[in-house]
C-alpha cells in the first residue's frame, strides 16, 4: 500500500490517462461494491470522508478519497469513462467562464460561489 504522505513532486507519471483510470476504477468498483446507483451509500461515505478532511485538512489521502468516491458516483449515473472525462472538462470551462467574487472579501471558512448571471469579458463561451 502506498503511503500518500510520502508522495512528492516528481513521483507523478509523465501523463495520467483519466479514461484508462476510470475503466479500471469502474471494473474494481462494480466487482467490489456491486452495480446500481448506491447513491445513499456513496454519499454517506463522502460525508464521512469530509469529516476526516475537516479533522485533518492537510492529509492528501483524505481529499483523494473524496475524488475517488465522486468518480464512483459519476459512473453510477450511467455515464461511461469518456462522458465523465468530458463532463469534468466542460464543468471546468463553465466555472472559468463565470464571474467570481474577490476571494479576499470572502470569509475563509465560507464557500466562494460564483456571481449569478455574471461572466468574465474574456471568458471562453463554450
Can you tell me about this structure?
It is globular and about 45 Å long. The chain is mainly α and 126 residues long. The model has no long low-confidence stretch (mean pLDDT 91). The chain has a two-stranded antiparallel ribbon with strand order 1-2. It has one domain (16-119). It contains four helices and two strands, in the order ααααββ. It has helices spanning 18-33, 39-55, 60-75, 81-97, and strands at residues 98-99, 115-119. Helix 1 crosses helix 3 (60-75).
The helix/strand class is mainly alpha
Shape: globular
Number of helices: 4
Radius of gyration: 17 Å
User: Would you report the number of β strands?
Assistant: 2
**What is the strand content?**
5-15%
Question: What count of structural domains?
Answer: 1
- Widest sheet: strand ordering: 1-2
> In terms of per-residue confidence, which ranges show pLDDT below 50 for 5 or more consecutive residues?
none
Order of helices and strands: HHHHEE
Distance between the termini: 41 Å
Mean pLDDT: 91
Could you describe the largest sheet, including whether it forms a barrel? Answer: 2 strands, antiparallel
Could you estimate the helical fraction of the residues in percent? 40-55%
Summarize the structure.
The protein has helices at residues 18-33, 39-55, 60-75, 81-97; strands at 98-99, 115-119.
Any key phrases for this structure?
mainly alpha; 126 residues; 4 helices; 6% strand; globular; 2 strands; two-stranded antiparallel ribbon
Amino acid at each position: 500500500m502506498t503511503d500518500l504522505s510520502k508522495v512528492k513532486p516528481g513521483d507523478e507519471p509523465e501523463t495520467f490517462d483519466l479514461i484508462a483510470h476510470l475503466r479500471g476504477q469502474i471494473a474494481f468498483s462494480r466487482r467490489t461494491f456491486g452495480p446500481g446507483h448506491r447513491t445513499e451509500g456513496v454519499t454517506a461515505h463522502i460525508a464521512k470522508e469530509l469529516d476526516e478532511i475537516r479533522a485533518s485538512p492537510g492529509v492528501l489521502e483524505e481529499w483523494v478519497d473524496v475524488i475517488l468516491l465522486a468518480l464512483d458516483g459519476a459512473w453510477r449515473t450511467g455515464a461511461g469513462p469518456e462522458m465523465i472525462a468530458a463532463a469534468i472538462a466542460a464543468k471546468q470551462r463553465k466555472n472559468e467562464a463565470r464571474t467570481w467574487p474577490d476571494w479576499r472579501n470572502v470569509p475563509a471558512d465560507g464557500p466562494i460561489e460564483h456571481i449569478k448571471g455574471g461572466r468574465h469579458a474574456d471568458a471562453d463561451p463554450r
